[in-house]
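Possible regression after last week's pipeline update?

I re-ran a chain I had predicted before the update to compare outputs. Posting the input and the new output here so someone can diff against the archived version. Not blocking, just want to make sure nothing changed silently.
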Amino acid sequence: MQSKTERSSKRWSAGLCSSLLLLATLVANAQATTTIKCVQVAAATPQSPTSPVVVSYPLAQTAGNLNIIVVGWNDTSATARSVADSRGNAYALAVGPTKGTAVTQSIYYATNIHGGSNTVTVTFSQAADYADIRILEFAGLSPTSRLDVTAGARGASGNLTVVSSGLARTTSAPELIFGAGTTGWGFDKAGSLFTSDMITTDGDIAEYEVVSATGTYGATATLGASGSANWVMQMATFKSVTTTTAQPPPAAPPPPTTPIQHTVTLTWKASSSTNVASY
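New output (post-update):
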């Protein structure tokens, strides 16, 4: 017959196992729901000078997600005056405008978006040549402090050249590394390790990569086989719902201190010789 102590111990062990199993399930579910992923994309590429440019998300959006809007056009005289949508989300400039030769691009974003059907409107200071508006929705990103670091570059390169946004060092992990490029001709494919969200009918690109460690990153893409082309390439990184912040290296310990030595001499004088002798 089992003692009361043995029965109690077995019940405690079973309860602990059940609790650990529940905790593991909750953690797994939390990790599954916070995976960074691209939900949907759309683009508008008017072939004549246009302002404003309007483009709609094909599906109803999910509240709390992240919107990224890439605004590219093939001139440097027009400027993007505003980015707005039908759900009333507030857009901030992540990077840009980066201006090349007859090509300009900026990236905007809205955090913690409202759910529902949504249409984005980009207004320029004047009709923009070959405007290329790419809109994307991402899930699994922080609803508050999302934007981390950015980079942008421009140039003119030949056939099948890999072009880069330049580098920046992230401060947390995991993160979304988002890249986009606008060119006078067209991109052929996304950079190594990047997933191509889209290459529009004008040949402009949007791509992303999810990284699990802090480090120095850049967005790259390969130009098409169309001779020398002017291009702009940009990168913006965004923090996950659950992030680990990069910590600075620990400070070196202070040098050991040399102990200070003191010598103390004690003296006393007997009050009488008789008393001393009695000891």
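Follow-up from reviewer: compared with the archived run. The radius of gyration is 32 Å. Marking as no regression found.
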